[in-house]
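Usage example:
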Amino acid sequence: MRKLTIPEEEYMLPGHTACLGCGATIAMRYVLKALGKKTILSIPACCWAVIPGVYPHRALDVPLLYTAFEVTGASISGIREALDVLGKEDVNVVGFAGDGGTADIGLQALSAAMERRHNVFYIMYDNEAYMNTGIQRSGSTPWGAWTTTTPGGKKRMFKHEPKKNVAEIMVAHNIPYVATATIAYPEDLIAKLRRAKEIKGPKFIQIFSPCPTGWRHSPDKTVEISRLAVQTNFFPLYEVINGKYKVSIKPKNPKPVKEFLKLQGRFRHLTEEEVEYIQHEIDENWKALLKKERCSQEE
Amino acid sequence: MKKILTGNESAAWGARLSKAKVVAAYPITPQTSIIETIASFIANGEMDARYIRVESEHSAMAACIAAENTGVRTFTATSAHGLALMHEVLMWASGARLPIVMSVVNRAMAPPWSVWTDQLDTMAERDVGWMQVYSENNQEVLDSIIMSYRIGERHHILLPSMVIEDAFILSHTAEAVDIPEQKKVDDFIGEFEPAFKLDPDEPAGFGSLIMPEGPYMEFRYKMALAMEDAKREIEKAVEEYNETFGRNYAPFVDEYRTEDADAIMLVLGTIGSTAKDVVDAMRKEGKKVGVARVRYFRPFPTEEIRRIAKSTNMLGVVDRSYSFGPGADLYAETKSVLYSHTDVPVKDYVIGLGGRDVTPEVLRKLFDDMLKIANEGVVDKEIEWVGLHGDERWS
Ligand SMILES: Cc1ncc(C[n+]2csc(CCOP(=O)(O)OP(=O)(O)O)c2C)c(N)n1
Ligand code: SF4
Ligand SMILES: [Mg+2]
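Running the assembly step on the lines above writes:
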């Protein structure tokens, strides 16, 4: 029998206010398990600004600074520099922001914080839309998805643009650590955070986090959808350490993306051709990723 | 020790002597030389601080907020568009009760682009819960920064401050400035003792969601009380500062020859010094005029302005900004606090926008107009734009 590698310590307390089956909540729980008590969080406007609970309740056992929507990058920079002034170099500083706060409104502050090379973690929990405000499209919403601002309708006005690849934008910043992860693979997620913890400098981790409310799936399917995202190559898991790619999981026989899509109401309207188009894009992206892995590993 | 310093160098010295430990800043004319001077202080080991070269003013304020909430003293500086970009997070800083100190160099808002002095930038931020102190000279810029840390950091105050100077007239003009002794400044401000901080040993959350039944309204009320209480702290700080460093500041309103004046001009910033010269000249001619230069616009010196208004026959308010409401800001607020307290005639003179020069000659014309109103008791026009192109009356 394999030994469970997930730490037993809990930094999430009972009483959070997330929806049933919320992937972002599971993501936070694992992140804190991996990083431990000496961690300070900065959380901008997003579902996670609400999930810890209403004042004076707080379902998190670590210090937490709520911040404006677009400032996470600047906020973690300020915390880090102040901690260093105080001689507390051993405290982890973690920005924990949604995809909207990361890919869109907060991209400027994030880019600058990474470029300045502060010793921080930036975690993007990716639920692929603005959920807190009621499921609007973000730059991270995938092609073809329904949201309330891409509602389909008679003109089939769903999202017609591909998902913005924030992890690759981070790679372009030449930071020491970039990774993708998801909640269905907690050992992988925790191992990545622990590896990142050993690195002094900016670390970016994108955690694919299914959202039953926004994706229109049954709350008991959260982990299954997270796993299918990897097994269909819809959301590949990989690391880029000092520019070297390493794909974490390479499905032997990738499942058709249809299996991932069909569990979610947000893709219900898609035609056969559109599903085929998505499959084609996934295959191309996967090939490109493997190529990057090969090229970057070559000496 | 005396040095020849510009207003901006004086501001940098203020931050240095106050021992700000995290500085996060973004350049904008005419603020740039503040943050350049600080950079060279740090680069030469003369100031021990972390310098975060952010990508925007919004991030500058956000980084200061985060650093201050982590338990260290912070400083930043900006102007006009930078200040406007900060708007959202200015309210975050005050709402989070973080006594950040920021230099603001007054500059006009575009369009059209203008880098010259105009107070609309700070006036547009008068309601965000920051203290605002306006300076008349470079010495006051430096001294006000030191005093602002001391005042804001008191645990029953905990409000941020803007220390404001006019673009170019102060920011880029050098004059002799007395640099206070470091040891004395240390004693005057004291060590930074945060009232609360992000600390893994005592986990707490700052700024969480709150319901209408929760104490949101009480938090605001406490801020309102703190802004009032700040008046006592300002008085104390100014008195002690004057004594320790040999200065002569009035806490709220710097009054010049107002005792027996028939007409008093209410001003902000450097127009005050020009007006004082004009007063001296006119007094020699037997014309009884005086100047009241408002230092603190927040907290608003209600009592002082009422007393000044009651002591004279006419109050002329000079505004170097215009708000598109019931007149410019100093005027509108002055009128509002005088209502039902005195019937003294009040007139608003809007002047010098976009950095247009405010000369002694023009101010003399304003004083003459004010004396006429004092004499006749009638205000011909409540809001007068002074010196518009083609306007013969004031040119
Ligand atoms: C400046 C600003 N604009 C808009 C909002 C409203 N707002 C709050 S959360 C949010 C969406 C957050 O989306 P994301 O970052 O993806 O996090 P999620 O809610 O999906 O977890 C928006 C638009 C805000 N708080 N501040
Ligand atoms: S809307 Fe989605 S991300 Fe937000 S709390 Fe609910 S399940 Fe979680
Ligand atoms: Mg989202």
